[in-house]
Amino acid sequence: MTLRTAGPVIAVAALTLALPPALSSKQLSIYILLGLAALVTLGLSLLLGFAGQVSLGQASFSCIGGYTAGLLAVHGLPSMAGLLAAPVVAALFATLVGIPLLRLRGHALAFATLAMQLILLSLLSQADWAGGAIGLQGVPRLSIGGLEFAEDLSYAYLTWGAVAVALLLARNIVASRTGRGLRALATSEVAAAASGVPVGRYRLAVFALSAGFAGLAGGIYAFYLGYLSPGSFPVLLSIEYVVMAVVGGLGTLWGPLIGAAGIVLLVQVLNTLGTQPGMPSYAPSVLSYAVYAALLVLVVLFLPRGLAPVPRELAARWRGASSKPSLQEAP
Amino acid sequence: MSDFLQYLLTGLGIGCAFALVGSGLIAIYRVTHVVNFAQGGFAVIGGMCASSFLTAGLPHGVAEILAIAVAAAVGLAVGVVAIGRPGTSPRQGLIITLGLGILAYAAEVLIWGDQPRSFDGVPGATTLLGVRVPTQYLLIIAVTVLVFALLGLFFARTDVGKALSACAANPYAARLVGIGVTRMGLLSFALGGALGGLAGVLVSPVQQVTFDSDVLLIVNGFAAAILGALTRPILALAGGLLLGVAQTLVAGYGSGAHQTDVALALMLAVLIWQAARQPTVEEAR
Amino acid sequence: MSGPLIEASSLVVRYGAATALDGVDLHVRAGELVALIGPNGAGKTTLVNTLAGIVPPAAGTASVRGRLGVVPEGRQVFGSLSVDDNLRLGAWRLRGRDTSAIYELLPELVRVRRQAAGSLSGGQQQMVAVGRALMGRPEVLVVDELSLGLAPIVVASLAAHLRRLNAETGLAVLLIEQNARLALRLCTRGYVLESGRIAASGTSEELSRSADVVRAYLGGVPT
Asked: Which domains can be identified in chain C, with CATH numbers?
């Protein structure tokens, strides 16, 4: 890593370490949700940007992770086991479901992931052993070796720790030979297959990995909130993640962070606007949806590579770099 | 037995509505290769507008046709954003229509509120094969069959229809021959809008339309279109009917809560089976 | 209408940062058979697209006077439509749909007229592509890589059709070809396009005798 790339990383890391104690309780909870969203979006961005597959059901994996952690903890197992099991079970689920599902391509796959989430949510609402439509209540606090995570502050650090680990993992994968194979997958499956890339296995692996990230986020969410229901993981949440990934910039590592931060903060602003006296009760959610949607459309039309490349391009223009367009980087 | 027939007939009726929504998707995809995720919104707009126009005093017939026209106009607008700009790829178009669909959902709530709406369709019930079925269902079936027949003729026999198919088959050659590919794409979006609107107008009398209780219509319309590989209207019709009947049977003999799941699982099974029969690696669009 | 039917003057066409055509001058007059030969990637198809109005010039001009018909590289038929429909769509700009003249010219297509174009052999598809272009009653025909992927006997038959059309109706033809021997034999005049520039031009005789052309495109054997 050169100094130029290390610089922003160190700055952001320092910021995330220093920020939590300075935040109010409400801001802290937003911070935590932001981190969890970034975690899910990172996985989705890998899937979408590197393996080229559209998933409209990413929240299902968070749901599975959350319920795994929650159910294990509620039934008396050590909470750490629940937290570790969450990504594993989510990834396993993704692998099982992926074997038939990933035979589909493009829009058929997009729709199939949507269908998967709808079916999952519906089954979960009927499942009394998981609390049914009302959901799972009374998930105990996370505790690791006797140290209890009682305050929001600890969850904040936990969340961002998880994001850091995921980022490292993602970066290593992307930079490796596997990563090049993945990028080849995104541009042309036929060419990738011809070059010896095991297309089927890679697609499944990325799918499972992204599910693992989402599952971990779901697990942390379960312990943080102490309560889960199928309604916590609606289809529109999956679409939110897609918006975050696209707006932030697909196939980059900063993209998910920028996208998640941008959208979560925007939603907070809209919520405040929407709950002003005089606004109808459905105003907050409607405003949010309208803005996500508009944002998604505008970004796709005018900033197809998302926000992440913008700082670099602005810096290059400022430095007076030549106007000749450079070769496109990996998509 | 009469129970079964009743479920069958209502299932066929609702299945036809699914097929209509799906046919709009197909019309758009064939010409532009864009999967229109806003398709369900056209149906909702059609139903809502019809309800509003009727409440405002417009007579039956006029209100519905006007509602369909509005849906077609909305379809055109979606098309302009999704494909109007040269260089927008179909994958971008998909994501754009997804965004526009959500925008439409928000607009619908803002305009019509979040309460369900319905209006009276064809009144009364008819006795067919010894079973009493609300006549509206028979209207749905009749109109759908007519529309599909007309669509088939349109694509196969008329010059514009063939030009639309040409755009789908080879846009480069279509341009060489002087066909305005973007204009044809916009036409297909307007057509998709009209078909979706028609579905909404037909279904509202029997199933209340709200901004989200019509998820059934949207999801199943999609499923029907996908069963038709997004290009074959006849398969979509068959798929829609299958989905409709499966759902009413499950709701009637089993539990209403699972009807969509059964339909979705069925559709997934068919999709995967279709894909398994094609061993070649496909290019993503 | 006394100017050339096709005229390119200092034509420059770019794709992003790459320059596909770099100052090209050429012309085709009424009734002429003109060849454009050159290797892959020379910019031949870019020229076709510019003449057809699909790609705009970055500098210079490309003008077409009169009706242009294009037989694109790789046939590009409408695979899911019948031969008949393919031909009729060729007349899209004209509104006339009479295909009888084409079937007279290309009787081999009569037998398969109702078949989907995508199911035909390469040679038949090429005939469909030519017929489709002719349906627009063009005054000048641009043919991009007629011989690509086709058996020599089929190519010879198509070339004969083109020569007959030119003789009987005065149809001008710009024949764009990698197969230089074919192109120079069929046409009276030609250009050589290399890396976006005209490297040589002259009558077919002159080009066939030019040492450079012979070496690069005629396999070292002058025709």
From this structure: 1-66+139-223 (3.40.50.300), 78-137 (no CATH)
Label residues B171-190 b or e (16+ Cβ within 10 Å = b).
Answer: bebbbbbbbebbebbbbbbb
> Nearest residue of C to residue B172 by CA position?
C76
A242 vs B95: CB contact, 8 Å cut-off? yes
Per-residue model confidence as pLDDT tens digits over A136-172: 888 887 777 667 777 778 888 888 889 989 988 888 8
Query: Would you state the pLDDT for residue B163?
Result: 93
- Sign (positive or negative) of CA dihedral A305, A310, A316, A321: positive
B229 reaches C (C-beta below 8 A): no
ipTM of the prediction: 0.88
Q: Does C136 touch chain B (CB under 8 A)?
A: yes
Q: Which domains does chain B have, with CATH numbers?
A: 2-276 (1.10.3470)
What's the confidence (pLDDT) of residue B279?
54
What whole-number distance in Å separates Cα of residue B64 and Cα of residue A226? 50
**Nearest-CA distance from B119 to chain A in Å?**
24
Q: Which two tokens stand for residue B64?
A: 């519905």
How much is the mean pLDDT over chain B? 84
Q: In what helix (H) or strand (E) does residue C190 lie, and over which residues does it extend?
A: strand C189-194
pLDDT confidence band for A113 (50 / 70 / 90): very high
Interface test with B, best of A114, A236, A285, A297 (most B CBs within 10 A): A297
Identify the segments of chain B with pLDDT beneath 50. Answer: 280-285
Most confident residue range from A42-46, B191-195, B262-266, C134-138: B191-195
Q: Cα–Cα distances in Å, from B79 out to A239, A264, B39, B55, B98?
A: 21, 29, 11, 30, 12
**Which residues in chain C are closer than 8 Å to B163, comparing Cβ atoms?**
89, 92
Residue A51 DSSP one-character state: S
| Pair A34, A158: CB distance under 8 Å | no
CB contacts under 8 A, B 237-276 vs C, are: none
pLDDT at C167: 92
Nearest CA to A156 out of A43, A18, A7 is that of: A18
Q: Residue B177: which of C80, C92, C97 has the nearest Cβ? A: C92
Chain B with chain C: Cβ pairs closer than 8 A: 53
Name the B residues in 114-173 with CB < 8 Å from any A CB.
Answer: 114
- Does C18 lie at the interface with A, CB-CB under 8 angstroms? no
